[in-house]
Amino acid sequence: MVGLKSFENKYPKELSGGMKQRVAIARTLINEPKVVLMDEPFGSVDAQTRNSLQEFLIDIWRMRGDTIIFVTHNVDEAVFLSQRVVCLSSRPGEVVREVSVNLGFPRDRTSMDFVKIRREILEHLMSNKSN
């Protein structure tokens, strides 16, 4: 399921950051949770690995249909992965905006619709920066 069959006999120190993230996702999904909470899971990997992990997560989600709550500060990542983006205020964290992401899959980060949603979220965040 996570594409690491050929690494089954490797020690954790022999795995890349992306591989470790795939293992963490597999470890979570093995318990068949109804809701998965992911808090900045791809923050420590390079951009190319992050994109690969995002595609991987979408594939898993489409295959299993789990509810995933994904916390990120990366607007592109939020739009790419989500059906809905919830923007929170800082201290106390309250919902200040909710944006539906009505884009099909596979998603194209360069499409006009993607860029429009991204811009809407960024403009909202920047206009409320002092709050």
Share of helix, binned? 40-55%
Distance between the termini: 43 Å
Q: Strand count, sense and closure of the main sheet?
A: 2 strands, parallel
Q: Over all CA atoms, what is the radius of gyration?
A: 16 Å
The outline comes out as: globular
> How many distinct domains?
2
H/E series: HEHEHEEH
Q: What is the subunit arrangement here?
A: single chain
- State mean pLDDT (0 to 100 scale): 89
Would you identify the regions where 5 or more consecutive residues have pLDDT less than 50?
none
Question: How many beta-strand segments?
Answer: 4
Q: Report the structural category.
A: alpha+beta
Side-by-side strand order of the widest sheet: 1-2
Tell me the number of helical segments per DSSP (H or I, 4 or more residues long): 4
Fold topology:
Blueprint (H helix, E strand, L loop, with lengths): L16 H13 L5 E5 L7 H18 L2 E5 L3 H7 L2 E5 L6 E6 L11 H16 L4
What this model shows, in words?
With 131 residues, this protein is an alpha+beta fold. The protein has 2 domains: 15-71, no CATH class; 73-131, no CATH class. The chain has 4 helices and 4 strands, in the order αβαβαββα. The chain has helices at residues 17-29, 47-64, 75-81, 112-127, and strands at residues 35-39, 67-71, 84-88, 95-100. The strands form 2 sheets. The chain has a two-stranded parallel sheet with strand order 1-2. Strand 3 (84-88) and strand 4 form a beta hairpin. Helix 1 (17-29) runs parallel beside helix 2 and helix 3 packs across helix 4. The N and C termini lie far apart (43 Å). The relative contact order is 0.11.
